[in-house]
Amino acid sequence: MAKNYLKIICIVIGILFLVSVAMPAIASASDDTGNEKTGDGFRGVFEKGKPEGKPDNPNKPDKPPKEDDDKEDPSVDKWAVVIGIADYKGRMDDLMYTDDDAQDMYDYLIGQGYPAGNIKLLLNRQAKGDAIYEAIDWMEQWEGPNSECVFFYSGHGSYYDGYNDGDTEIRDESIICWELKHILDGFLRDAFSSFESHKIAFIFDSCFSGGMDDLAGSGRVVVTACDEDELSWDGADWQQNGAFTYYYLEGLDIYNTVEGAFTYGTPLAHDFVLSEYSYDMNPQIYDQYDGDWAF
Fold first, then answer.
1. Cα distances (angstroms) measured from residue 66 to each of 2, 57, 62, 70, 181
2. d(Cα 260, Cα 268) in Å, to the nearest integer?
């Protein structure tokens, strides 16, 4: 009997030890005070053309297509895909202001003459992996050599080792779709490889986004919130934005150029994160556009 009690005590002690080890990891993923745009629940790679979840029921009739209130306006050759995910699948990996980042960028573009029908705005659950690819394909169908194109993403960023996405990197940076899966930088490079536009801006407010230089090319500017080995951070309550996006949008309001906003916002975002979180966050720019990229 005494041996049985001793065994029970040992089991209880073991369970308590495991709980004590697990709790910090759980807290780091769910604690809003952390604010870094990285998480623990990412679940592999999302590949275009490979359906996720349960297969469709062939006996269930298709719903009629939803009529969009805002139609494309080809007379205004400006196109954008704007993505912000704060409310991810599940409860462990939510962020604070990333959907606000996207909404504010959408509002800025509207103010710069982008018709509402020329922007795909994907917030939270709308930003599933297939929806992100579909939005890029939609923009590719409308754009041409003289088009002005914007791809904006604010949400989790991460990296994935050992997947061959068509480049020589062992470690690939990624954005994270709503299902908590990686969309690798090489996948995005391929998705934009057939674009004819000589004026494309990519803006990422996400961790490790400095590695998104796979998207760089002639006529393109890639702006990132941090370097490829750094974290990006949500801002404070008074900002209601990601730390980088907050100052970048201020810069856009002043200069209305990708480069001017970057030059303005970079030191302010860096100093804010260093003061608030004691981390280095060094925004990056890869600029192969001739002259200033003006909205």
1. 70, 20, 12, 12, 27
2. 13
How far is the C-alpha of 64 from the C-alpha of 124, rounded, in Å? 23
3-state secondary structure of 69: coil
- Please give the average per-residue pLDDT across 19-46, as a whole number: 45
CA nearest neighbour of 219 among 184, 253, 238, 192:
192
Residues 87 and 99: beta-carbon distance below 8 Å: yes
d(CA 117, CA 138): 11
Neighbours of 215 (CB within 10 A): 20
Query: Helix H segments across the chain?
Result: 2-30, 98-111, 129-142, 185-191, 243-255, 258-277
Q: Which token pair is 11? A: 């089991």
Which structural domains are found in the chain, ordered by start? 77-287 (3.40.50.1460)
Q: CA-CA distance, 258 to 272, in Å (whole number)? A: 21
Which pTM does this prediction carry?
0.80
pLDDT tens-digit profile of 42-79? Answer: 556 655 555 455 444 445 444 444 445 689 999 999 99
pLDDT score of 44: 65
DSSP state at residue 80: E
237: closest CA among 100, 142, 139? 100
pLDDT in tens, 133-157: 999 999 999 999 999 999 999 999 9
Phi then psi for residue 62, to 5 deg, are -70, 145
